[in-house]
Amino acid sequence: MNRRQWFQFGAAAIGALIGLVLAVPGVAYLLSPLLKRRTDDSDFRTLTRLGDLVEGQPRSFSIIEEQRDAWVSYPATPVGTVWLVRQPEDAPEPVIALSAECPHLACKIKVSGDGKGFLCPCHASFFELDGSRVNRISPRGMDTLEVEPIDPNDPNAEIRVKFHRFRTGTEEKIPLA
């Protein structure tokens, strides 16, 4: 190998190395959907057991999840709150789940002072224990969440809820992406 061939070989090797360094992020970007960690397909979260709820007494549960923004992962933090209300035995569903985010302006809904309903402390929206609105401040009742069907006679049945956030300030219940 003469000196000219050695420089040609060296230039080609350096060019290939630079091309490889530039190609790695592109290939990683194209393959990223395949490499993403899959979440539970059902997205139901276990919050408690049926026997831990008292009929007619709402109980709140925080929804905690890890968040990911492009390449940055954040530690598990609360992203919302769910109210669970155990229903009487003759009700069609043993438990209803309500989002604790007010449909008016997304303030956190609390139990009213007498414990017979819900109150939004920001603008005094009142709701019944089933989430229906009492006054006309909020554009709609509290947002109900899907609860996985359970056996109402099994006190150890897990209450699993599918958590969603909804658009505020509208009469329609529109899920956020």
Describe the fold and architecture:
By secondary structure, the chain is α+β, with helices and mostly antiparallel strands. The protein is 19% helix and 32% strand. It contains one helix and nine strands; from the N terminus they run αβββββββββ. The strands form two sheets. The protein has a six-stranded antiparallel sheet, with no helix packed on it. A three-stranded antiparallel sheet has the order 5-6-7, with no helix packed on it. A hairpin with a 4-residue loop joins β6 and β7. 18% of the residues are buried.
Write a compact overview of the structure shown:
This protein is 19% helix and 32% strand. It is of the alpha+beta class. The N and C termini lie far apart (62 Å).
What is the H/E string?
A: HEEEEEEEEE
Number of helices: 1
As a percent range, the share of strand residues is 25-35%
Low-confidence stretches: none
The counted number of beta strands is: 9
Read across the widest sheet, the strand sequence of neighbours is: 1-9-8-4-3-2
Distance between the termini: 62 Å
Gross morphology: elongated
Biggest pleated-sheet summary? 6 strands, antiparallel
Blueprint (SSEs and pairs):
Layout: H1 3-35, E1 44-49, E2 59-69, E3 72-86, E4 95-99, E5 110-111, E6 117-120, E7 125-128, E8 144-147, E9 158-162
Antiparallel strand pairs: 1-9, 2-3, 3-4, 4-8, 5-6, 6-7, 8-9
